[in-house]
From TrEMBL:
This is Uncharacterized protein LOC111449848 isoform X3. Residues 1-32 are annotated as: Disordered. The gene is LOC111449848. Residues 1-30 have a biased composition (Basic and acidic residues). It comes from the Eukaryota. It holds the Pfam family Transcrip_act. Keywords: Coiled coil. It comes from Cucurbita moschata (Winter crookneck squash). Residues 34-79 form a coiled coil.
């Protein structure tokens, strides 16, 4: 449907109401896309915080275990040297366990961060595709 409007100039201007509706629809689509992007970005941030909390929890557990192992080591030293060879073996196992805990903590943190980043990149790619399809 078209309507005629008197232009400031000498002529008449013909405006298509359908095209005006499409402009409004395009604007609404853009607003919807922006709000969708914001919602997804908030979801990404929420998941990122969850991953961060999990990593911090695992690291705090690893630190507690390391402290516990250090305490056990001190207790063994206090016991004296009646079982010198066994104490040496236990110390070696404690050292090995400490190294493993430290490396496991680092591996867990790296994996969780990598996973979070991959998830975020996938979501951003989906958003990009969605935007490309809506345009």
């Amino acid at each position: 449907m078209t309507s005629k409007h008197r232009d400031e100039g000498n002529g008449e201007r013909i405006v298509s109401e359908g095209s005006r509706g499409r402009d409004d629809g395009g604007e609404m689509g853009k607003k919807l896309t922006v709000s969708t992007l914001q919602a997804r970005e908030e979801e990404i941030e929420r998941r990122k915080m969850e991953v961060k909390e999990k990593v911090e929890l695992q690291l705090s557990r690893a630190e507690e275990e390391a402290k516990r192992l250090a305490q056990i080591w001190e207790e063994l030293e206090v016991m004296g040297d009646p079982m010198g060879k066994e104490v040496g073996n236990v110390r070696k196992r404690i050292d090995t366990a400490k190294k493993e805990l430290k490396s496991l903590g680092q591996i867990c943190q790296k994996k969780l961060l990598d996973q979070s980043e991959r998830w975020r990149m996938n979501k951003l790619e989906e958003l990009s595709k969605h935007i490309a399809l809506t345009n």
